[in-house]
């Protein structure tokens, strides 16, 4: 639904109203099980269907020929010829009727030898059709060629049927990973990424000596996702620590961030023990965000260690501390920042907790956290981000109506910025392009939830035209240290999922490879690599799939990427 030019979503001050976020009650729950059963049928119902069964006993009965046994010639003559003849005539009539009945039951015939995998008979029974027993046959013999045997004296073991001729198999060697890398790099970059600056591999690898011994150098390493270099550089700088204790503390904060990103949780816990009580850290004379960053990293470490309760408790503690400073109007004294910056820090902590609660399926509690966001400190650009995030929570809950309303509010504020009539009229073209891409991402996710796959594919594909030269958001905000989201990367990942739902695996692979080729430094991350490796397993044979995974691994090495976990390649 479209808002008119004068229909402004409410929310001028205070907390986010119910008009934007919807009621706090539980959303309407649609019977997804009925939908699934109507589409795919449940396994229980399928097992009780009246499908025709292939009986092993019917095959055995059909092999027992009802014609007179040829071994009757060797039997002694009967004592009553006339009675025996009448009995033989009656027996022949019965046998003819049985032949007609057996011919009409074609489904009871023995299976063809071309389909042994269906398991019609086990090995012991199938041998009775091929190899005769050692003793002399009896009139009840089950040989299919019993009528061709003139007498028991000339009976010979029947030879096993000759195997059917097999067609020659054509085997094609899987291309080598080196050849795939050359082909990958020679392919032209998609026009939507034509302005990308990182499409070509670097001339040489980055050395620690090339990085300046400054805090800005550590920030640059984090923005480039060079976790190993970040930890090594921080440790080398701490070998000769600066005289300013606040600078040393900031170096330790980046060292801690690198250790957590690398998965060295025990070492990260040791760093926190060295720092001591984080609540006692002074904010005077140093970077104000360092104590907040350390508290967020402490909570993030608890989450990575599987301590969910500690993670929630630490984030609640940080939210209470920040909210208390804002409500008392003492952010300068307690945090050394103004109210607007403190409110931004509070939103980071709130969304970090909301994301965790969503992963824990605690949707109503996540919405309650988001409902306490103070909108009077939000500009239009920030409103778009907040509304989009809350709308996605509603979307994951299955409340599509509330999600659509929130997404429309985000679209309205984006259009206000585009026309220059909002309270953030001074936004740059890059920020505006990112907001428009975020609105398109909302549309694609909503279409996908509504099972409108083609519309979702179109929305995700349109994002690539709008952000062809935009840099990753993580390079611009401290918030992305804990709320990592790349609009383009998310769009392409969802595009691949939609293509997979449309049974077009080739399109999904092509979309991910096209994105990686445009800017491997930005888009070749663990999530993309894992999804692409899974698609390779679906599309190619084992040898080719392994070669293409090795290709991605070599491309990551060629571009000197440190943040891709080797386990994501699934080799």
TrEMBL record:
Composition bias (Low complexity) maps to 57-74, 85-109, 149-159
Q: Which InterPro entries match?
A: TPR-like_helical_dom_sf (IPR011990)
> Which organism is this entry from?
Phytophthora nicotianae
Give the residue ranges for region: Disordered: 1-173
Q: What is the protein name given in its UniProt record?
A: Hydroxyacyl-thioester dehydratase type 2
Please note every region of biased composition (Polar residues).
Answer: 27-36
